Amino acid sequence: MRNFDLGTLRSFITVSETGGMTAAANKLHMTQSTISMQIKRLEESVGLPLLDRNSGRGIRPTAEGDQLLGYARSMLDLNDEIWGRLTAPKYEGTICLGVPGDVIRPHIPNVLKQFNRDFPRVQVKLKTAGSIDLAAEIEHGQQDLILTTEVYDKDQKLPSNGELLAVQPLLWTGAVKGHAWMARPLPVAMVRGCAFRRSMIDALEQAGIPWLDAVDTDSEDSTSVAVAADFAVRPELPTFSDPGIEEIDHRGELPTLPRCSINMYLADGPNKALAEELAIYIRGAFRG
């Protein structure tokens, strides 16, 4: 009988996703030589080259490797689901998670998938809203765990229930090949209560650039439509994924925006134990 080793398949998947043996070894907390030996034995066992080491863009799966990749992911997902359901603490209940729309992707979908796999009896109620609104809700006991986007201050000390997850630059974004960024006054599209609004206004006014609100909305979708239609521009984190929107190559004609911190806050309430479990998954996703 011929059987695939699940640990080897996990290494194969990670190499394919990271594009390198070293990166995969770091992510899996293994040595590079161990990863290389696993891949070598896997290729020898199937008698096929599974990874192209000369692609010029890092290590990539071959045509045969792509076929294996889909099956390998399914096998690992099933393995992890079984382990999660058999070994997870018997937590039950509902926890409320609040996340700003601009940091939902790329991490939160996979976080929720993994958490649901490992804690099938726990329901997560996800709400997207602006950071200012979410901060008020956790203060009043309406959220168990929130993420916020805030202007980064290296001297700022977060409260005891707060934790810094990441620091990222803010970028000017607009429609693909758009021209709205050249208009004066500069049309901007931001949801009400956006944490970046004050810093954006300060940057524009210090640069002497007049501006106007192109939309008045609480909906991220509405601002995305306005920006993609080349009606306006907006500040974004580098992880933005809206179709029809790209970082603006303004060649210094728009001011540099401040860096942004992504913070996590836990409420000290009856669901704290559950929220702390979910926080482990979020922390791991943002810190790689």
**The CATH topology of the largest domain:** D-Maltodextrin-Binding Protein, domain 2
* Secondary structure tally, helices: 9
Oligomer: single chain
Biggest β-sheet: strands ordered side by side in the sheet: 4-3-5-12-6
Number of strands: 12
GO molecular function: DNA binding; DNA-binding transcription factor activity
InterPro entries: LTTR, LysR_HTH_N, LysR_subst-bd, WH-like_DNA-bd_sf, WH_DNA-bd_sf
Domain HTH lysR-type: 4-62
Organism: Kiloniella spongiae
Which labels suit this protein?
alpha/beta, Arc Repressor Mutant, subunit A, LysR_subst-bd, three-stranded antiparallel sheet, 3 domains, HTH lysR-type domain-containing protein, single chain, transcription regulation
Notes on the protein architecture:
- InterPro entries: LTTR, LysR_HTH_N, LysR_subst-bd, WH-like_DNA-bd_sf, WH_DNA-bd_sf.
- Keywords: DNA-binding, Transcription, Transcription regulation.
- This is HTH lysR-type domain-containing protein.
- The two termini are 37 Å apart.
- 40% of the residues lie in helices and 20% in strands.
- The chain is α/β, with parallel strands linked by helices.
- It folds into three domains: 6-87, Arc Repressor Mutant, subunit A, CATH 1.10.10; 93-168 and 261-287, 3-Layer(aba) Sandwich (D-Maltodextrin-Binding Protein, domain 2), CATH 3.40.190.10; 171-257, D-Maltodextrin-Binding Protein, domain 2 (3-Layer(aba) Sandwich).
- The strands form four sheets. A five-stranded mixed sheet has the order 4-3-5-12-6, sandwiched between helices. It has a three-stranded antiparallel sheet with strand order 10-7-11.
- Strand 3 (93-99), helix 5 and strand 4 form a beta-alpha-beta unit.
- The chain is built from nine helices and twelve strands.
- It is globular, with a radius of gyration of 23 Å.
